[in-house]
Amino acid sequence: LGLRWRITDDLNLIAGVFQLTSPYFSLDEADVFRELGQLRNRGIEVSLSGSLTPALAVNIGALLLDPAVRGPAVDQGLVGPRAVFGIARNVEAALDWRPPFLQEFSFDVAFSHRSPEMATVNNRVEIPTRNLVALGARHFFKIDEKEALLRVQIENLFDKQGFELIDENAFQLLWPRRILAYLTIDF
After folding, report:
1. pTM of the model
2. Are 117 and 86 in contact (CB under 8 A)?
3. Is 14 exposed, middle or buried (0-12, 13-18, 19+ CB in 10 A)?
4. For the segment 35-89, what is each residue's pLDDT rounded down to a tens digit?
5. What is the spatial distance between Cα 18 and Cα 92, in angstroms, rounded to a whole number?
6. What is the signed CA dihedral for 93, 106, 52, 88, rounded to 10 degrees?
7. CA angle at residue 127 from 178 to 168, to 5 degrees?
């Protein structure tokens, strides 16, 4: 069930509730990829996007999820009741400000929140809650009459340490705080 509300000409709210059921496939205790039960995802998604003012744009999204695994393997304790990659909350928010007195610049902030994430089928390992912040700026200008953009961004502003889940029981380190810059030019 979904709803789209056009709050203003430039601002939209979208919300939905859902329940999906599918077979749950992963590696079993013998490392054989097979069906381990039924996965039921029930949740709510909400997003707000558009311009709050002519100078301030927003993009906020939230997912509240109740992922549950059911079946004989869960009943026997071979498989945990939470799915790998199953999270209860995911929130992404970004604001972009283009000050009227500096039309050739824009400044942005992004926030990301993920609740604990299950990393193994037996539910013995999970990645803890993660909150990340990024700051950025853009400079719009011309090079030889061609539109150009210089983008600078600081990712993981507070240098949060941790892991990113890339597959069941497979991890990579979160990128430490870093500064990225790139230049694009229209030809």
Report:
1. 0.86
2. yes
3. middle
4. 999 999 999 999 999 999 999 999 999 999 999 999 999 999 889 999 999 899 9
5. 19
6. 0
7. 105
